[in-house]
């Protein structure tokens, strides 16, 4: 197997002394995992931030082997990870994506939606500019994975978007993350708390 594609890094987990296991969302191949040698080293640490857009190369001798991954940074979301609200939003969007999508199943619309959402989070002046996109992305994940639901009405003000965000909490926990190990929903709770603080 030899794959080259643009990708969004959605998760990075330490492996051994200096390596990482990366999970990446691609438009053509869906969610893929790869072993990144030196992923925790000084050179690659800035690349291994969830949310970053990268040029990915995956190589494996067989389909049963975890591929080796080489990543080159194309767009960093790192500068926004020092800001509490954007950092919470990027963390949640990436954690949700990494946790619920099956590997090697392409979802081109989800790839494009996630890329657009992350760009909005990083470039909008406030959550007013991206919260509707977050709600739309969560609803799209539910639909794409077979749990139905109507497209949310994205008209209205920030309070309406926060209510729509709250309304999706239960179906996400019940359908998408019911069998997930670890408390992925904690990232969503943290984001929700920051949104409420912003409007108080």
UniProtKB/TrEMBL annotation:
Domain DNA replication/recombination mediator RecO N-terminal: 1-67
Superkingdom of this protein's organism: Bacteria
InterPro entries from the UniProt entry: DNA_rep/recomb_RecO_N (IPR022572), NA-bd_OB-fold (IPR012340), RecO (IPR003717), RecO_C (IPR042242)
UniProt keyword annotation of DNA repair present: yes
Keywords of the record: DNA damage, DNA recombination, DNA repair
Pfam families documented for this protein: RecO_C (PF02565), RecO_N (PF11967)
Coiled coil segments of this chain: none
Family note: Belongs to the RecO family.
Protein name per UniProt: DNA repair protein RecO
Natural source organism: Erythrobacter rubeus
């Amino acid at each position: 197997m030899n794959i080259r594609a643009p990708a969004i890094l959605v998760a990075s987990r330490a492996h051994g002394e200096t390596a990482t296991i990366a999970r990446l969302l691609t438009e053509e191949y869906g969610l893929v995992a790869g072993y990144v040698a030196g992923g925790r080293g000084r050179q690659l640490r800035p690349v291994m931030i969830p949310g970053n857009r990268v040029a990915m190369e995956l190589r494996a001798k067989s389909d049963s082997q975890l591929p080796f991954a080489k990543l080159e940074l194309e767009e960093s979301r790192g500068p926004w990870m020092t800001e509490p609200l954007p950092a919470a939003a990027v963390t949640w969007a990436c954690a949700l994506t990494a946790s619920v999508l099956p590997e090697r199943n392409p979802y081109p619309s989800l790839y494009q939606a996630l890329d657009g959402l992350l760009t909005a989070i990083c470039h909008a002046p406030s959550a007013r500019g991206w919260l509707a996109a977050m709600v739309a992305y969560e609803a799209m994940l539910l639909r794409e994975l077979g749990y139905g639901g109507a497209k949310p009405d994205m008209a209205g003000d920030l309070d309406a978007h926060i209510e729509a965000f709250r309304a999706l909490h239960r179906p996400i926990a019940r359908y998408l993350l019911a069998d997930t190990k670890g408390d992925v929903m904690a990232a969503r709770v943290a984001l929700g708390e920051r949104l409420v603080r912003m409007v108080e």
